[in-house]
Design a protein that fits this description.
By secondary structure, the protein is of the alpha+beta class. It has five helices and twelve strands. Strand 8 and strand 9 form a beta hairpin. The model has no long low-confidence stretch (mean pLDDT 89).
């Protein structure tokens, strides 16, 4: 994938790699259904993975370049007014699938576990306490040109992987798409 790829190209490529991989680890009897309407996507994510006894919503985020951080979106101005980012909009049971194209790494965690972890009270270097999220730098998403301003926290991958239930996966390349 080229460095000049658009946001849509990166997202679509990530989906074309992540969905078949997740389906392969969920089992052959798993059906995948895309979520089409905008409201449901904001609340549940991009896809439903439905097995014989389970259903799981998954939201896929894709980054082109490897970074020591996961960008956790806290708010944006999607409709001209400030609104909550996916950390707060997505349902707690939705699985975040954060894919890095360059390294083929996929980081997964439930939104509920991520949200609880980000708001856990921790002690800061100065001895005061507060939510963990305040330990991480707040940044505007500037890697790619977007229609809206997106703001989030830069969470080191090493700390992200300490969240209960988080996992790191190596995703093999799917050449034929899905």
């Amino acid at each position: 994938m080229e460095a000049t790829a658009s946001v849509n190209d990166i997202e679509l490529y990530g989906i074309s790699q992540v969905v078949p991989y997740l389906k392969s680890i969920c089992g052959p009897k798993t059906a995948v259904y895309p979520i089409h309407d905008e409201f449901s996507q904001r609340v549940r994510g991009d896809f439903f993975f439905c097995g014989l006894m389970t259903e799981r919503a998954v939201d896929v985020k894709s980054e082109l370049k490897t970074s020591p951080h996961v960008f956790v979106e806290t708010h944006s101005d999607r409709y001209g007014d400030p609104c909550r980012g996916w950390l707060y909009e997505l349902h707690p049971e939705t699985t975040l699938a954060y894919f890095v194209v360059e390294s083929r790494k996929l980081y997964t965690v439930s939104i509920g576990d991520l949200r609880r972890w980000m708001h856990e009270s921790v002690q800061y270097a100065d001895g005061s306490t507060g939510p963990r999220l305040n330990r991480f730098l707040e940044r505007e998403q500037t890697k790619r040109k977007q229609r809206n301003v997106t703001v989030g926290r830069l969470v080191p991958v090493s700390e992200f992987l300490q969240i209960t239930g988080s996992k790191e996966h190596d995703v093999p390349e799917v050449r034929s798409g899905w």
